[in-house]
Amino acid sequence: MYATYPDLDNASVFITGGGSGIGAALTEGFLRQGAKVAFVQRSDAAPFCDEMEQKYGRRPLFLPCDITDMAALKAALDQAAEAHGPITVLVNNAANDKRHKTEEVDEAFWDWSVAINLKAYFFACQHVVAGMRAAGGGSIVNFSSISYMMGNAGYPVYTTANSGINGMTRSLAREFGPENIRVNAIAPGWVLTQKQKDMWVTPEGLAAHIDRQCLKVELQPDDMVDPVLFLASRTSKAMTGQALVVDGGVVVTG
């Protein structure tokens, strides 16, 4: 059973990293709503697009792109808008949480990590504003993480970017709110994508993390779909500048 958001039917949606992991779940979730979805990523997503077309009768528009190349990212956004109409939902999802130690970071790694995890978010937001303004409004959803809220070690440039996403989200929400452009963030907990399982998950580490959660469940990519759909739709029309934590209850606020 899935919630239905009628205003997302036929909406022009753009997702970074939309062919694998959380991004693939988001692409499918928007297709399920009847949206027109375009997405970028570096690896080939043709088999995934074939699967989506077979299931939903419409094919997402896959645009190969390295989001650290700002010119290529902007060109992909333009191509998506030309194919589907002005982008009214932007989901900045692509990220890279490569583990690293502070003393090992050089300028090249810093620039690479910030480009993926923050710079691309900013310039994607910047680039869609004009189309959203012309369309009478839109919704931007930026993926952050609870990692910076927890003060996690092991990837300091990544957590720095996550915190920056939160600040950027608030500032852009203030700047573009008068034009009915909403900007929110979503902060997932440890979502067990295939990449996480292959690279970082250990039985001991996972058990320790779930022990910190209020809800004793393993978070899956599908668990991020409904929160993003909610932020993308008019159901959340009075929400902007917010960070929605979806982590099973690790970070408890109030």
TrEMBL record:
Q: What is its EC number?
A: 1.1.1.127
Quote any Pfam family the record assigns: adh_short_C2
Alphabetical UniProt keywords: Oxidoreductase
**Enzyme class (EC, first level):** oxidoreductase
Source superkingdom? Bacteria
GO molecular-function terms, A-Z: 2-dehydro-3-deoxy-D-gluconate 5-dehydrogenase activity
What are the boundaries of the signal sequence? none
The family line of this record is: Belongs to the short-chain dehydrogenases/reductases (SDR) family.
Name under which the protein is recorded:
2-dehydro-3-deoxy-D-gluconate 5-dehydrogenase
Q: What is the lineage of its organism?
A: Bacteria, Pseudomonadati, Pseudomonadota, Alphaproteobacteria, Hyphomicrobiales
The coding gene here is kduD_2
